[in-house]
Design a protein that fits this description.
By secondary structure, the protein is mainly alpha-helical. The chain has 10 helices and 2 strands, in the order αααββααααααα. It has 2 domains: about 100 residues, Cytochrome c-like domain (Cytochrome Bc1 Complex, Chain D, domain 2), CATH 1.10.760.10; about 80 residues, Cytochrome Bc1 Complex, Chain D, domain 2, CATH 1.10.760.
């Protein structure tokens, strides 16, 4: 009898566990951000390996609709081929869910995108980065613990769109970043993007 009860309890436990995994708020992110947060879409960032603090801030910014949410096509899962954006994707996430998602992807490994960059522009971009950006985006923008996102090896089209949004005032600019951003000229954006994209 005890053996039967034990088996029943185990079955219930496994059922609950599988239900909890199905309800994992990070699971639905794969449709756009790729398996384990490694994006295969140049317009969608890889979020694996970002710091939890950075990811929580980004998600909260989307919740408040303080940051633009570009529409993208979902590339995997049961909604493959349909359109969505970050406002829709996180509309039902609680603060606890956001923390869960952030911690989940922070524990993954960042994988740099395989892409081609212009060497001359990348060299110019490195000079601009070293002068204006390195204080907050250290080691070429590769350190997650900066809590400023990982730029090194991020998708170039995504980075270009984000820098354009910053310059156009569409995305909130951190106070300490504004005076640096003011010095970035239109041609500098391509240089910076190519520098970050060139980091393998």
């Amino acid at each position: 009898m005890n053996k039967l009860i034990g088996i029943s309890l185990l079955a219930i436990g496994l059922s609950l566990a599988s239900g909890a995994m199905a309800a994992d708020p990070a699971a639905s992110c794969a449709g756009c951000h790729g398996t384990d947060g490694v994006s295969t879409d140049p317009n969608v960032p890889t979020i694996a390996g970002m710091s939890a603090e950075y990811l929580k801030g980004a998600l909260q910014s989307y919740k408040k609709k303080a940051r633009p949410a570009a529409e993208v096509t979902i590339t995997a899962g049961d909604k493959k081929g349909t359109k969505s954006d970050m406002y829709k994707a996180i509309a039902d996430l609680s603060d606890a869910d956001i923390a869960t998602v952030a911690n989940s992807f922070a524990a993954k490994k960042f994988v740099r995108a395989k892409q081609s960059a212009d060497a001359a522009l990348a060299a110019k971009g490195k000079e601009i980065h070293d002068k204006l950006c390195d204080k907050c985006h250290t080691e070429g923008g590769s350190v997650a613990d900066d809590d400023a996102g990982i730029l090194a090896g991020q998708w170039m089209p995504y980075l270009k769109a984000q820098l354009a949004d910053y310059k156009a005032g569409k995305r909130p600019v951190p106070t300490k970043m504004q005076p640096k951003l003011d010095q970035v000229q239109p041609g500098d954006i391509d240089a910076l993007v190519n520098y970050y994209g060139s980091e393998k």
